[in-house]
Amino acid sequence: MLELAFIRENTDLVKKKVAERGYRVDLDELLALDARRRQLIAESDQWKHERKVTSEKIGSMLKEKKDTAKLTAVVKELGAKIKERDTRIRELEERLQQMMLEIPNLQHDSVPVGEQEGDNVEVRVFGEKRKFGFPPRSHVELGEALGILDFNRASKIAGARFALYTGLGARLERALINFMLDLHIKHHGYTEVIPPFMTNARSLVGTGNLPKFAEDLFKVENWDLYLIPTAEVPVTNIFQDEVLNAEELPISFVAYTPCFRSEAGSYGKDTRGLIRQHQFNKIELVKFTAPEDSYQQLEQLTRHAEQVLKNLGLHYRVVNLCTADLGFSAAKTYDLEVWIPSQDAYREISSCSNFTDFQARRANIRCRKKEGGKLRYVHTLNGSGLAVGRTVVALMEQLQQEDGSIPIPEALQPYMDGVERIPSS
User: Fold this and answer.
1) Which of 348, 361, 405, 424 is catalytic?
2) Is 348 an active-site residue?
3) By three-state DSSP, how is residue 38 classified?
4) Mind listing the pLDDT tens digit for each residue in 232-288?
5) Beta carbons of 321 and 118 less than 8 angstroms apart
6) What pTM was estimated for this model as a whole?
7) Catalytic-residue membership of 276
8) Dist CA 357 CA 366 (whole Å)
9) Active-site annotation holder among 138, 252, 351, 384
10) Which helix (H) or strand (E) holds 273?
11) Which of 105, 174, 183, 227 is least enclosed, having the fewest CB within 10 Å?
12) Helices H, strands E: what count in the chain?
């Protein structure tokens, strides 16, 4: 969330930045509401002062046994006016809060201005597209032929956009989870956490998922609980309403969780396969940093996510997302896009973002440099390290052999008890 005082003082800048992101926000209405709210607060405060002075006068008159009927009537009238004003102030504050929650974060100056995904800027590339001596098959064809993925039985159990992993397919998914966790814990210095897989509305507001993206969430009926769309939500809210010691920053967490998304608005896209599912596994990296360090930490976090793909020997690229493709809460995002041979296209496998203090303001996460020092909002960052199902897709498709078998990358073999290949039947 942006600071209201910042919007008042930098209205033209906020209008420009929001417009570049393609959002329509009536800042003039917001500022008019804010001006009216401050006017009403001033009136209410003046009447409260008058009531206090009058009440003190009544107290003195009672000691002198004087008639206080007229002043008592004045206090009563002031009380009614104050009540009416305070009710109106609360209504305006609720409206202002809703409008503030609809304003996106402001992008960093290094974010390219663009109107579509094609305006994203390629930053770097690892490896090359493999030249196949045969027509590459999709992971769906490969998985079903190898007997390690079963989409038909999954749909019988739960409907479309679910997968059933079996045999070496299940072991591959589990091996990737453990491999990614170990890499980030042992080599990158993250602390592992296992958060709740459900979260309340307050936490979703904190990360920017609510109110704007309610249709993408699975809500638990009759409970203030939602299935998490990503571990970003519970992990970012670990420090909700807390004050951190700035000397302890950055704090880096890694978490494995299943994730649940309704994929509203994505009808017809990747309805088969592992690319876009209602339930999928993901390793999430989350950082809490001092404001002055957050962009350096974004570069580091992105490199940590990339290392997973490098260790697996998978071809990918990194792109700097343009304003039109940037997430609502992010100030800057690098997408890691892995090459999918059957589509001859790059698909996002990780988004590494700096949210600056946008989430911290919503979740009320602050830090203090020293005892008695000034409180500041921390900066929060996160990125997938990685989306596990999409890693399975890339691994299967990029490494597939003509006979349909899948070699297991050397880095992953210890996590599969030495299995070197998923053999063709």
Assistant:
1) 348
2) yes
3) helix
4) 999 999 999 999 999 999 999 999 999 999 986 666 667 689 999 999 999 999 999
5) no
6) 0.93
7) yes
8) 9
9) 351
10) none
11) 174
12) 12, 17
